[in-house]
Amino acid sequence: MKSVKLGRQGMTVSALGFGCMGMSTTYGPSDDEASRATLARAVDLGVTLFDTAETYGPFHNERLVGCALAPVRDRVRIATKVGFVFDDDGNVVTHDGGRPAVDCSPEHLRTAVDGSLGRLGVERIDLLYLHRIDPKIPIEDSVGAMAELVAAGKVGHIGLSEASAATIRRAHATHPLTAVQSEYSLFERGVEHNGVLEAVRELGIGFVPYSPLGRGMLTGALTSLEGLDDSDFRRHDPRFQGENLDANLRLVAAIGQVAAGKGVLPSQLALAWLLDQSHVPIPGTRRIQYLEDNAASADIVLTDADRAALEDAAPIGTAVGDRYPAGMLATLDTDAEPRQH
Question: Does residue 56 carry a catalytic annotation?
Fold first, then answer.
């Protein structure tokens, strides 16, 4: 797999990364042995960017990823995310309505990074993200603390996850960002009209789309909630409920027709659409077969006709339903006004 520059700060990664979250949480029970085999196969295929977070598990995913990648540490880049608050039992603290608590104060970030370093078993985190923006803390203070961690050698590069364009600009002015991570796919195109893509392109920041397959929707394999584990996040995802699901499956069918005409899988076409824009998507899977299918998307070349057909099949705003339940939706940084010190 070819390598690409992620932003302008000197970080080089594979064109397609790997999102590790599903190996520990969100989509029902998983198997560590199978996960390690899938991660090993990803390395064999040339994937070098692996994305985890302290909250995946919580904590289990960082340990899993760190252990699995230890034999090839010099060949890979590990990204993790910090900023959520945990109780003494290791559970994410939530407020009324299920909104997770966020703390991006310098003190909390320093402690969180030390925890991630220990669980990953590394001396340096290659790419550290704020998992969510803390409305109580000026972004300059949070990024300033991250810059200190870079200077101390604990972090190589820094980024933000689910940040507004205004926050991205203020953060980048404090210390150059290597990457911004947000949900983006043929299923979720909000960053095209909220200024985020415009900001990262203008500032030379790499863009990392997560959930590039719409949490499995864009594979075309999921047509109902039947068979999903009771703990599967999608049982509560608004886009997978009732009439929303019916409408969204029609969108998926339209994308599938374009894919069939090109002789590729819908998932491969969805990833190729992101790669065609020079983004670095991080699809996740527990299965080697799906991993290999995803990796093959890096070789797909889109024509102008393909792009036009996909625009017709999945224009902005077609997906129906909020992209998160209310609690998680409340953590997204959508404030266009600068926060004051």
Answer: yes
